[in-house]
């Protein structure tokens, strides 16, 4: 996770998003917080599969 965050920060990303159906507790332990589909980038919102009911988590960098 640290390597991914460092790479994202180097690329000047402001946030990381993850979608998960099973491991939300682990991502929350890593500093992510649950958010809504509406916070995803527009292109990703259009691809979101509501039938999977994935949780959307975000972490500010």
Topology of helices and strands:
Blueprint: H1 2-10, E1 15-20, H2 24-29, E2 33-35, H3 42-47, E3 55-60
Antiparallel strand pairs: 1-3, 2-3
> What letter string, H or E per element, gives the SSE order?
HEHEHE
Query: What does the main sheet amount to?
Result: 3 strands, antiparallel
User: What global shape is seen?
Assistant: globular
- Rg is 12 Å
Q: How many separate domains make up the residues?
A: 1
Approximately what portion of the residues adopt beta-strand conformation?
A: 15-25%
The largest sheet has its strands arranged as 1-3-2
Number of extended strands? 3
What structural category characterises the helix and strand content?
A: alpha+beta
Number of helices: 3
CATH T-level topology: Aminopeptidase
Report the end-to-end length measured between terminal Cα atoms.
12 Å
Shape-level CATH architecture: 3-Layer(aba) Sandwich
Name of the CATH first level:
Alpha Beta
Mean pLDDT reading: 96
Q: Could you explain the architecture of this structure?
A:
By secondary structure, the chain is α+β, with helices and mostly antiparallel strands. The chain has a single domain, classed as 3-Layer(aba) Sandwich (Aminopeptidase), CATH 3.40.630.30. The chain is built from 3 helices and 3 strands, in the order αβαβαβ. It starts with a helix and ends with a strand.
